[in-house]
């Protein structure tokens, strides 16, 4: 099973997920990485679930049109929308709250 390492505000959380798992769906049903993952609509419209991929990007699908629209040049910096990712292999992500949040 894939291992997910999720960094948030200086802390790291690790858990295993089944292949073809979406982290926003899991957080919505109060499983790992709940309550640490920030997310909103779950449909790629709000970008609240934006994360930077630290490791495992090569195993993620190609960014879809929603990610291209929301993230633009940030895709080149390693950012992805967690709601649009289906985890098949180990991945390490970081998500920081915006200043003043």
Characterization of the model:
The protein has 101 residues and is α+β, with helices and mostly antiparallel strands. It has a single domain (3-95), classed as Ubiquitin-like (UB roll). The chain has two helices and five strands, in the order ββαβαββ. It has a five-stranded mixed beta sheet with strand order 2-1-5-3-4, with no helix packed on it. A hairpin with a 2-residue loop joins strand 1 and strand 2. It is globular and about 30 Å long. The termini are far apart. The mean pLDDT is 94.
Query: Which percent bin holds the helix content?
Result: 10-25%
At the fold tier of CATH, the topology name is Ubiquitin-like (UB roll)
Weakly predicted, low-confidence segments:
none
The CATH architecture classification is: Roll
Query: Could you name the CATH class?
Result: Alpha Beta
Please state the overall shape, judged from the principal axes of the Cα atoms. globular
Can you identify the CATH superfamily?
Answer: Beta-grasp domain
Tell me the β content.
25-35%
Instruction: Count every beta strand, where a strand is a DSSP E run of 2 or more residues.
Output: 5
Order of helices and strands: EEHEHEE
User: How many domains, as an integer?
Assistant: 1
Radius of gyration: 12 Å
Strand order of the largest sheet: 2-1-5-3-4
Largest sheet: 5 strands, mixed
Structural class: alpha+beta
């Amino acid at each position: 099973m894939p291992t997910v390492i999720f960094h948030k505000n200086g802390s790291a959380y690790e858990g295993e997920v089944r292949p073809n798992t979406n982290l926003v769906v899991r957080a919505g049903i109060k499983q790992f990485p709940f309550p640490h993952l920030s997310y909103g609509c779950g449909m790629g419209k709000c970008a609240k679930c934006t994360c930077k991929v630290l490791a495992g990007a090569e195993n993620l699908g190609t960014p879809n049109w929603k990610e291209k629209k929301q993230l633009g040049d940030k895709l080149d910096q390693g950012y992805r929308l967690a709601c649009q990712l289906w985890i098949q292999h180990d991945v390490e992500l970081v998500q920081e709250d915006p200043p003043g949040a």
